[in-house]
Structures are given as structure tokens and as C-alpha cells.
């Protein structure tokens, strides 16, 4: 019986390894969201440039804008967009070079899809880059940029509309306003409409447009403060905490060595919970059951998608935790320190302090990670959905999934069970490292392995120090919550 169980477990493990490998390989051709996030923040800055407080003189307004938005925000924005475009073109060239000619073999669908995504992105970027070039008085260059879009894409009419607005003499194409409304957002839409209304001498449309731009600019300054200043303050606190810990370590008075757990089960139980309970049931069996049921929420809008995401996550967590319980049931009652919530130290301070430390560490890791993957390697699809979702109910459901459901389930599984279980075979430091790598790999995105491994290691350290799950749950929840709030704010900048 035991031999049969091991054979089944080995087969499931093999299937999971194949699935993980194929999913990670597929993510290699998926774009990251990091470049998109940078541009969303750039778009917020552009929107804030329209601020013109009536109570301030021109020199005072210039000083305020310079201090808050930089010396030349338009030049900086143009550089940001050109940098992302260059990265997209590099990726497009790489994908197209990997494509096998149809005469030799069937086209690789994944590469074709990735190439198409990069082409679409480049065309969208060029529409906006042209407007930034206009703002920098580079009108001939802008016309050339739009001309490139006009010759190769469905956005040709929008590009032709913009080129006509800044041609000499101007050429107002039919349906110019609907084209601008449909294909441009935020500051870029404002620039296009302003130019159109000025040429049409439509004061009744221009005045309310400019008034709304002032309101948007004032609101955007607050958003910039939230997404910029608050994390910066938290990062400074985190640096001081890291320095304090480093000084303590150098003075040979670190906190006591991390003790291991008393583990009553073997590697078979660990594999059973991880491979069968988490990967197989959650990543293979559950999606197949949902597909077989015929339930499809994709055509029902953002709220249905959010409900679907939450239900799927709850079902996955329920199945995994059920298998976890059944796997360790015969070892009850467990030794001390297993699955304790509050632990031996102040869980709140460890969770909060861990979050502050995570800010500078993850910033440094993200810079390194971006250099490694150059905008590729995939990202959590939920991030892009949240950026583009405008329904508050859907956003609330997504927030609950990311900030409550995910931290509770993942900390119980990866820190509460996996990390302590590994201390039977590895030192505590090795168990933290291996459990963090598995935690990162479970997110099925190559570009997220390094940052999530670092975050997982910090979560593991906080848990092993405090011996309470609430500390790592709090850190995990804070990280996801602030990330989601930042996405809400960035996404609202393109309304």
C-alpha cells in the first residue's frame, strides 16, 4: 500500500514539475507590468502639470510645479516613453527572430501572440510620444512619429487626426473628436482636444475642458504624494531598521540563533501537502473541473471576474488546507510552535517592521530584476486587471482577495507548514531559502521569482523570529494592500 502511494505521489509530482516548467517557459514571452506602472506614474505627473493656481503668481506657480514635478516634466516623460518603446522594439525584434517561417513549420502561437502584443504597444506608445514631442516643440519629429503609425496599424486614423491638427496648415479630419476620445486618455486626450477646440474656435467646449483639467491636476497632486512620498518615508524607516540590525550583528550581539521546529512527519507528508494539496488540486484539478462545468465569467464584466477570482481562490485554499489537515491529522496534538498565531514576540511590531524593511529591499531587487529580464518574464495578471478596472465593487473584491484571502492562505501553507517542515532536513536559514523559492515559483512567472523569493525570505525570517503567523500575515497583507492601493491610484490617473 505504501509503495502504491509513493508511486502515485511520484507521478503527481512529475506532472506538477512538467506543468510548472511549461508555465514558467510560457511566461518568458509575456510582458512585465513594471514598464506600464512607470508610465502610469508618468501620466499622473503629466496631468498635474496643468495645475495653475489662481491665487499664485506666474513665478510662484512655476516654482511650485518645479518642486513637485521636476525641472522639465515633459522632457522626462518623453524620455520615459521612448525608453519603454525601445524596450518593446527590442522584445519585438527578439520574438520575430525566433519565429520559424511558415514554410518550415507551424508558427509558434505563443511567439506570434507576444509579437502582436509588442506591435500594439509600440503603436499606442507612438501616439503619445508624438504629443510629448509637440510639447517639446519638436513638431516635425512628431509628424514623422505619427506617420509611422499611419502606415501600419488600425490606429492609423487617430495618428492621421493628430498629424492633421499640427500640420501647417492644419487639416481637420472628420470624426476627429471621437477618434481622440476613443484612443487617447488622461493628459494626452486633453492635449488633443485642446488643440482641436482651439482650431475650431469652440470656446464653449474649451472652457469646461480647461476647468476640468484644473480639478484633475489638483486631485493628481494628492495621488502623487500618496504613491511617492509615503513609500519613500516608509523606505527611510526600513533603511534605519536595516542599519540598526546590521550594527547589532557587527557588534556580535544579534538576536539569538533561530531554533528549528520539532517535525513529526517525513518528506512524503511534505510532498503530499505541497504537490497534491496545493499544486495538483489548485493548479490542475480545480481548473479542469471548472472548465468541465462550463462556467465562464469572462463575458460578464469586471464584477463577475472579481467574484470568479475570489471563488477560485477560496476553493483552492479550501482544498489545499483540507489535504493539509488530513495529512497531519494522525500527528495531533502537534509539538509547540506549530501554527501559532501570536507567537512568542510582538507579532504586530514584527509585521510592521518587516514591511518597512521590505520597501528598500524590494526596490533594490526590482532594479536588478528589471536589468535581468528587460521587461519580459510575465507578471501577475491580476495587476493589469486592477489597473484597468474602474468598478469600485470589483476593485473591492480584488482587494479582499489580494489583501486578506491570499496572505492568510499562503502564510498558513508556506510559512506555517512548509518552512517548519523543511527544518527536519535543513538548517533554519536553508529552510527559509528553499520555502521562499518554492513560494516564488508557485506564482508561475519567471520575472517574479527573484523579488518574490526575497519577499518570501523576509516573510520567513519574520515568522521564525516571532514564531507567530500573524506577523507574516500582517507583513504579507500590508505588502499586497499597499500595492493594490497604488494600482488603484495609478489606474485612476488615466480616466
> How much β-strand is present in the residues?
under 5%
The biggest beta sheet reads: none
Q: Judging from the principal axes of the Cα atoms, what is the shape?
A: elongated
Number of helices: 18
What is the helix fraction of residues, given as a range? over 70%
State the domain count: 2
Q: What oligomeric state do these chains adopt?
A: single chain
Report how far apart the termini are.
Answer: 62 Å
> What's the mean pLDDT score?
82
- Rg, rounded, reads 26 Å
Estimated structural class: mainly alpha
Order of helices and strands: HHHHHHHHHHHHHHHHHH
Task: Describe the overall structure.
The chain is mainly α and 495 residues long. It contains 18 helices and no strands. The chain has helices spanning 2-27, 34-48, 58-69, 73-98, 109-135, 139-150, 156-166, 176-183, 186-200, 203-250, 267-293, 301-328, 347-373, 381-388, 392-422, 428-441, 449-466, 469-492. Helix 1 (2-27) packs across helix 11 (267-293) and helix 5 packs antiparallel against helix 6 (139-150).
